[in-house]
Amino acid sequence: MDELVEAIGRHRAILFAGAGVSMTVGLPSWQTLIAHIAQELQIDEANLTETEVNHLTLAEFYRLKKGRIGPLRSWMDRAWTLPEENLRNSRVHALICELDFPIIYTTNFDRNLETAFTLHGKPFVKIVNAKDIADIREGIPQIVKYHGDFDDDDSIVIAETDYLDRLSFESPLDIKFRADALGKTILFVGYSLTDLNIRFLLHRLWKTWKGSGFEKDRPPSYVFMLRPNPVEEAVLQQWGLRVLTEPDCAPEDALETFLEKLSRNVSALREKAS
Fold first, then answer.
1. CA distances (Å), 249 to each of 12, 236, 253, in order?
2. Which of 20, 42, 74, 183 is most buried, judging by how many CB atoms fall within 10 Å of its CB?
3. Mean pLDDT, the chain, as a whole number?
4. Cβ neighbours of residue 170 under 8 Å, at least 6 residues apart?
5. pLDDT value, residue 144
6. What DSSP string describes 198-225?
7. Which of 229, 119, 105 is nearest to 174 (CA)?
8. CB 124 within 8 A of CB 145
9. For residue range 35-45, what is the model confidence (pLDDT) as tens digits?
10. Do 109 and 147 contact (CB within 8 A), yes or no?
């Protein structure tokens, strides 16, 4: 983990945070979203289980039936916004603030990262669209809402069409990510990596470096997984990502344990440098 510690200590690393980060403090699961849509549209949930309909397809159906995604977004905003006390007591969120990443990308729609930064007295710039990129200020951490934000219906990637459109990777945030990622180490946390969008992003990044002729100069990047998985590990290593785990730790405690270790080592490095 030495290279990762050094990259974070020198502010040369990007954090990419998924739903698993907020689930540590009580964020509802995608199954909760499926159950809500089923109830609102009067669909038998047992039928959804039998056909294995995912939340993307169901949200697409919701938009077709309702004509817009707004009411669903409003419900999600209420359900996905956690009490400040939960975030104040969240060690995972505190550690993310302590590690002081210059840029955090997140596929979460909720405001929990932003609230945690505010509670810990850390300034930040939230980036949802091209206009926000102009607000970037030197030395101020960026929180980039890669799949949108509850404050902007049009930005949210929640239904299947949104998701497929996003696979073109040509939006302003995609262009920004490619520019940010080429020169920095990336640490992915809070992902199951069954997310095709993220897997495609990792593959595209690998192809960019491979096609450049300078693949050996690529900064190392990492994926933290809650439990060891030799199949995932082999595939991700093929794309130039190193898999980190806490094999002796219960999955529900693994992320906090990993970030604690990371924070201790980064703090020691920064103290030594100063």
1. 28, 22, 6
2. 20
3. 88
4. none
5. 97
6. HHHHHHHHHHHHHHHT-GGGSPPEEEE-
7. 105
8. no
9. 889 888 888 87
10. yes
CA distance linking residue 159 with residue 33, whole number of Å: 12
- Contact between 193 and 225 under an 8 Å Cβ cutoff? The reply is yes
261 burial level (CB within 10 Å; 0-12, 13-18, 19+):
middle
pTM of the model: 0.91
Contact 91/62 with Cβ under 8 angstroms? no
Give the number of other CB atoms < 10 A from CB of residue 146: 26
The total number of residues shown for the chain amounts to 274
In the β-sheet with 103-106, what is the strand arrangement from edge to edge? 125-127, 142-145, 103-106, 13-17, 185-189, 221-224, 241-244
Q: How many CB atoms lie within 10 A of CB 18?
A: 21
CB 232 within 8 A of CB 193: yes
Higher pLDDT, 80 or 260: 260
Average pLDDT over residues 180-203: 82
SS3 252: helix
Q: What is the pLDDT of residue 54?
A: 80
3-state helix, strand, coil in the chain (%, to 5): 55, 10, 35
Q: With H, G, I as helix, E, B as strand and everything else as coil, classify residue 14.
A: strand
